[in-house]
Amino acid sequence: xxxxxxxxxxxxxxxxxxxxxxxxxxxxxxxxxxxxxxxxxxxxxxxxxxxxxxxxxxxxxxxxxxxxxxxxxxxxxxxxxxxxxxxxxxxxxxxxxxxxxxxxxxxxxxxxxxxxxxxxxxxxxxxxxxxxxxxxxxxxxxxxxxxxxxxxxxxxxxxxxxxxxxxxxxxxxxxxxxxxxxxxxxxxxxxxxxxxxxxxxxxxxxxxxxxxxxxxxxxxxxxxxxxxxxxxxxxxxxxxxxxxxxxxxxxxxxxxxxxxxxxxxxxxxxxxxxxxxxxxxxxxxxxxxxxxxxxxxxxxxxxxxxxxxxxxxxxxxxxxxxxxxxxxxxxxxxxxxxx
Amino acid sequence: xxxxxxxxxxxxxxxxxxxxxxxxxxxxxxxxxxxxxxxxxxxxxxxxxxxxxxxxxxxxxxxxxxxxxxxxxxxxxxxxxxxxxxxxxxxxxxxxxxxxxxxxxxxxxxxxxxxxxxxxxxxxxxxxxxxxxxxxxxxxxxxxxxxxxxxxxxxxxxxxxxxxxxxxxxxxxxxxxxxxxxxxxxxxxxxxxxxxxxxxxxxxxxxxxxxxxxxxxxxxxxxxxxxxxxxxxxxxxxxxxxxxxxxxxxxxxxxxxxxxxxxxxxxxxxxxxxxxxxxxxxxxxxxxxxxxxxxxxxxxxxxxxxxxxxxxxxxxxxxxxxxxxxxxxxxxxxxxxxxxxxxxxxxxxxxxxxxxxxxxxxxxxxxxxxxxxxxxxxxxxxxxxxxxxxxxxxxxxxxxxxxxxxxxxxxxxxxxxxxxxxxxxxxxxxxxxxxxxxxxxxxxxxxxxxxxxxxxxxxxxxxxxxxxxxxxxxxxxxxxxxxxxxxxxxxxxxxxxxxxxxxxxxxxxxxxxxxxxxxxxxxxxxxxxxxxxxxxxxxxxxxxxxxxxxxxxxxxxxxxxxxxxxxxxxxxxxxxxxxxxxxxxxxxxxxxxxxxxxxxxxxxxxxxxxxxxxxxxxxxxxxxx
Lengths: 339, 625
Fold this sequence. Notes:
The structure holds two protein chains of two kinds.
Chain A: H1 3-34, H2 41-56, H3 62-79, H4 83-107, H5 113-124, H6 127-136, H7 144-166, E1 180-183, E2 186-189, H8 190-212, H9 214-224, H10 226-231, H11 236-259, H12 269-282, H13 288-308, H14 313-319, H15 321-331
Antiparallel strand pairs in A: 1-2
Helix pairs in contact in A: 1-8, 1-9, 1-11, 1-12, 1-13, 2-5, 2-7, 2-11, 2-12, 3-4, 3-6, 4-5, 5-11, 6-11, 8-9, 8-11, 9-11, 12-13, 13-14
Chain B: H1 34-54, H2 57-82, H3 90-107, H4 112-134, H5 139-159, E1 175-177, E2 180-182, H6 185-207, H7 210-217, H8 222-227, H9 232-258, H10 268-281, H11 288-311, H12 317-332, H13 338-348, E3 376-387, E4 390-401, E5 404-409, H14 416-423, E6 431-436, E7 439-440, H15 446-452, E8 454-456, H16 469-474, H17 485-489, H18 494-511, H19 526-539, E9 544-548, H20 556-571, E10 575-579, H21 583-589, E11 592-597, E12 600-605, H22 607-611, H23 614-621
Helix pairs in contact in B: 1-6, 2-6, 2-9, 2-10, 2-11, 3-4, 3-5, 3-9, 4-9, 6-9, 10-11, 11-12, 18-19
């Protein structure tokens, strides 16, 4: 391998690493607020790619009808729950899906990449709160293990739906930019830079959100002490919905970004999500900077691994977990009781 | 499944009114008479011999898969239902053993029995290594890592050239032992179900033993387990290896039953299937495994036929249906379908008549250890413990001697429970010297402290609420038994087990719980749950007993009996250190009282002197007195 190939692989690795970082952030937010290990986040990523691809091809994606169907159920449920819930429900599950659906019907035929991307984000993001509402909230106080098993089952529901909506074929998202630069002998693609830029913007945005807004602070409170947060009047249902919404938005964005680099099929999200996990575990499921370093490491190793021993790429990435776990295990003290 | 920590019934902190005797047990212990054993034997015979012989050909294969699934699911019941861990990677253990036996028997010409042995050794060793890196971490880490290794092994099975990838390996030799060879699928089916019966019986024996009791503490009561001397880290690894070995047995049988293997049946999806079996059947009972396996395998087969006929499409839709079923079950019936079935049966079972306190007054006197009187058991010298900037204990010094009852009192937040945790090894002191039985003990883990002769109870009662009072008390005998996992599985531990249970029974009688031995501990009023903890602690035969608010929630006669018991223990030479808020109880019982406030010792001495100490009055009454 010469210097040039190495740099190209490094560029690839950093780009995918940024995507893993996004997913790791989504996982950490959901886990720390609700204790749910959000396995289906990867599937929402695939939904993001495939939804924008369908819109670009001039179809209305099945995810739109899924949004409408689930919203209708949520709307009926909140109407039966007193007028305050009803008001909120009408806005979130009545007006919003209506606007998105009408928007999709009117704008999708134009097949403008920017509009398709925005529509895809608008369609996939509410899946997060809806998943929380129907799957997790009913057993929000169950053990981490029970929530994890439910998460796993949900993953299969989503890939089943993905197959129904999009069929088995791979599809690509439109690139945000076709530009490319020559940096010495290395060709830097504009899409790679766009991915990094989006990632940086998102991280800064989240920093601001968690540091300066009341909702962000509520999430942090819920993450550090769920019971305490509830006692001071922070609604556990609302923080859960917000955390899942953020994670779904992040997943959809990641799907739109990575879909322009690699075509994805309905079941490709899981592997990508799992690598987000590896990154998140490196952060001990608690620390964001560690997760960032882990994500870039996973991306680069995978990229180098696919050059040297492509068949063993996955094995290399997952084996990376072992030393990290040994370290975490040595660092942890006496066994604690698990809730 | 874990299902979260069960809180005690709605008794809360208020003592129960005298009019409400403890509720009778809703589930009396199953009586295992000769009839039950005969029924089980007949059922086993039917499953292992008759069904394989008469089943229509198509169902032979299906029933075989049910048996293989049940084997893997049995391991998951132990892992998930009993010990509160889980694995999304069991199919890779099935695969490891299957490939190992295939390589040996097909390419090296070894007999299948060698394939079994090597397969189990390989599976067990890899499981042990994986357990090694996750055992100290929270339960969900094991589950997450199992996803990763499940993918890794699947990818290895598919890419290693000598495993032939997805083309698979055919013509695997049939099962044989010496000159006997099982060419027929029906014989194989019999072997599979014989294996299920044996593994199930061994698992049942395991759960009904010293190790079985210890395994139950892994699920949400690890601290308690450590306090009675159980090495919970090692034990959770052991359970994980056992579950992997069950999967390995299934893998061995799978290879020789199907006589063709490829990576597909060892994928992550297959692992999830096994987990679904356990959730659908019920993770709380061994019978959930075969029930869940049968439901998943048969339903999947039916759906495979049905769904394409309805939708006209081919695809993984049955998985979609299954997943939705599993989600609904987790939400509505997290214990699976078996408890729902069992509910019908339970309704017919006669309710055992329970007479509380029937043998309450029987208290066998123990030989007095007066020779040890006055020996120093525990000494704290300048113990401090900080949590961040908060000093929970500051420079605390006092000692407890044999044949002495020392009470530790002080307002809420004075640091009493922190001090208890430091003494019993749960948290190390930030500074200072801690001497237990004459040796430095500041950094020993709780189970070593327990082995030295210190037993404790907890302020927030830590019991296995669904297990019987007797089983809970018998946990305290853990250190006086030696029988391990294998002896328990082979039922070679009965003499020792009888000795441990009789010890537990004796301590139960001693504290006045002789009439409620078979009740689930969680059904007792909170005050009596504390007494169960005391009996459990006494089973350790401690030289020093730490009691955290033992009289809270007790009625007056019960308090008097507890005081009498503690006096008797003192007469036998035991040292007792207790935290208590009931001043009447403390003042009539304690030889010495140590008073703490804001993390510091403010007074120490005989009860009368402490009561009139100005600093103590200041702390309790705010200086108004």
